[in-house]
Design brief:
mainly alpha, 238 residues, elongated, single chain, transmembrane, transmembrane helix
């Protein structure tokens, strides 16, 4: 059935529509109903198998259903690797207050469930990363600090790089490099080359890469399995 065009209809931008869904709590309701529908559909074969006779057909159907469910879950988990978690992230998501770690970020056992589909996993990842952006940033800093603690040479390289640029700033202020653009450009090039050598040979990039890999894995798994729960709208920083 085709509807006639309405001249009074308005086109709502996607960010405004998603903000309305978030403020009205519809995203949490949609996530809860999707999980409930998946659990109810999964419980039907088990109850039917309990009331039916134990025959070879029943065993084979249960086995086929188990492998089908396992394959579906593997596809859902693998879909988390194809999601761009930062596609809907904005700078405003870092300006609010940090959600509490115990009740907000970690929650309890009931706060987690396996996503029933790739669409639900995508919705959870995008929404949870917006909500817990400051928590994930804090985790990255902690992982990077742990990596530097495990790799003392990387810590020495990072401190040496910072000291090098502080020395460049001191020399620039002392000899007025601002009045000599060519000299300033040459000094910046020398500083960049020296920084690259320090970061490369002292394994600073390895510490950064390991922290990024661990924090990214934790973020994707947490955001994909964390249920969407009603939360107070964060206050924006002024």
């Amino acid at each position: 059935m085709a509807f006639s065009p309405n001249p009074l209809s308005l086109s709502v931008p996607d960010p405004a529509f998603e903000s309305w869904l978030r403020d009205s709590g519809y995203l949490e309701l949609l996530d809860h109903r999707t999980s409930a529908a998946a659990s109810s559909s999964a419980s039907v074969p088990s109850s039917a198998a309990a009331t039916s006779s134990a025959s070879d057909d029943i065993v084979s159907s249960i086995t086929a259903g188990f492998f089908a469910s396992l394959l579906s879950r593997l596809v859902t988990v693998s879909s988390l690797l194809t999601i761009n978690p930062f596609s809907k992230l904005s700078a405003d998501d870092f300006s609010g207050d940090t959600p509490p770690w115990t009740t907000g970020f970690f929650g309890n056992c009931d706060s987690y469930s396996f996503p029933s589909s790739s669409q639900q996993a995508r919705m959870r990842v995008h929404e949870n990363i917006k909500r817990f952006a400051r928590n994930y940033a804090t985790l990255f800093i902690v992982f990077f600090a742990c990596a530097l603690y495990q790799m003392p040479l990387a810590l020495v390289g990072l401190l040496a790089s910072l000291a090098l640029w502080e020395l460049f700033k001191f020399c620039s202020d002392r000899w007025k490099f601002d009045r000599h653009p060519s000299m300033r450009k040459f000094s910046i090039g020398i500083g960049q080359c020296a920084t690259a050598v320090l970061l490369t040979f002292l394994n600073v990039q390895m510490a950064l890469f390991s922290a990024l890999a661990i924090s990214y894995s934790v973020m994707i798994l947490h955001a994909g399995f964390r249920k969407l729960t009603p939360s107070k709208k964060p206050s924006r920083g002024r």
